[in-house]
Amino acid sequence: MTRYSPLALAVLAMLTEAPMHPYRMQQLIKARGKDEVINVSQRNSLYQTIDRLMRGDLIAVRETERDGTFPERTVYEITEAGRDTARLWLREQLAQPAHEFPAFPAALSFLPVLTPEDVCRQLVTRTGALERELARLDAVDEHAQAVQVPRLFLLEGELIRAKLVAELDWVRSVAADLKAGALTWSPAWLEEIAQRFAPADASSYKLNTPTTDKETKT
């Protein structure tokens, strides 16, 4: 069975509207703002996805067209199996939370590699980036409201914004605790914690600790 990916679902969704060539698919995804949630920056990824869908008999070649001086373009159409698969994928993604591995939580799990001061500086920088992204999304939403885009086509933006607001509030709170010293660590304290929770069969166990900016536990 063909493996799900957001880009594969996007291709099938585009082709449920009408047969089209890859460049047109990429244009529509960007024009509709779906590139906020689907990575179509690399044309090669789109062609690789189309190849996978072809091998799975989810799409088929409709025709090859030539437009003036442009190179020949292959037009694809969705198959009945493709329509069924698109519906199946969409139901699964709506109903079942995916177990993903985003980069930011992974970085948070290794904070002792840095000092509290260093972490605080990075989170303050992240706060500024999140604020700018929130302002950009708000501007996009204002434009959509001005041209009366139906809410049905803006729901993914609402979710992105809600998650962004929640992350921004949380990052601000952690940065504030770091500045106030309510959240801190030191090499000695980390070593103590490592020994306390070391596996019973381990003779030596250490957490990664910063080598500069000595801190004391509050």
From TrEMBL:
GO-annotated molecular function: DNA binding
Residue ranges of every copy of the Transcription regulator PadR N-terminal domain listed in the record: 11-85
Keyword vocabulary terms for this entry: DNA-binding
Alphabetized PANTHER family for the sequence: TRANSCRIPTION REGULATOR, PADR-LIKE FAMILY, TRANSCRIPTIONAL REGULATOR YQJI
Protein name according to UniProt: DNA-binding PadR family transcriptional regulator
Source species of the chain: Caballeronia udeis
Higher taxonomy: Bacteria, Pseudomonadati, Pseudomonadota, Betaproteobacteria, Burkholderiales
